[in-house]
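User: I'm new to structure prediction. If I give you an amino acid sequence, what do you actually give back? Let's try with this one:
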Amino acid sequence: MTLLHYEPPTTPFLQVIYEDAQLLVVDKPSGLLSVPGKRPEHKDSTYTRVQRVHPEVRVVHRLDMATSGILLLAKTKAAQSHLNKQFQDRTTHKKYIAKVWGELPASQGEVELPLSCDWPNRPRQHMDFFTGKPSTTFYRVSEFDGKCSRVELTPYTGRSHQLRVHMQAIGCPILGDKFYAHSEAFSAAERLLLHAEDLCVTHPQTEQPIAFHSPVPF
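Assistant: Good question. You get back a string of structure tokens that encode the predicted 3D arrangement of the chain. For your 218 residues, that looks like this:
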């Protein structure tokens, strides 16, 4: 699927949450790619914006273009390796906030559904009980207004589009989701209402926990 009409936000151009000799943490807006796409018109991204000031910066993880919030980058090869291992070993802690359609089946719970790429319709993902990778998301509802729910999402695994597919699978698609929401849920918001609010990792130099926070913009 080709990314059409890419018009990333430019105000603010780059918002830094935290910086030291090893780490750089930025607040990625919805609508901006984490890393550049293949086409020249898709070069603008969080990574390329950071590179203008810090050419040595290295990618650690990504957020979907439509998702906002905390994006962590490494300033050295050693820091990148250290952080990559934390993500692979699932020792990081991530919390997202989403606004979803409808009422979840319980006030808190867990979604365990295997996922794989829906190749004819990529970048969409789908449930796949034959070749899909195990995927787990924990949720906790903080608010229900009679029509929509505000929910905290904690992914145990980090599959592509995991939170979006898991919410759709239990009948509560994320508002504004052009890939997985039905028409009413899609038109209920001007953007995907999914935000990476909190991230906690072990600092690659001090070996101590360090936490980052980004206020939810919706």
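You can read the tokens as a compact description of the fold. Here is one thing that stands out. Residues 198 and 213 are 5 Å apart (CA to CA).
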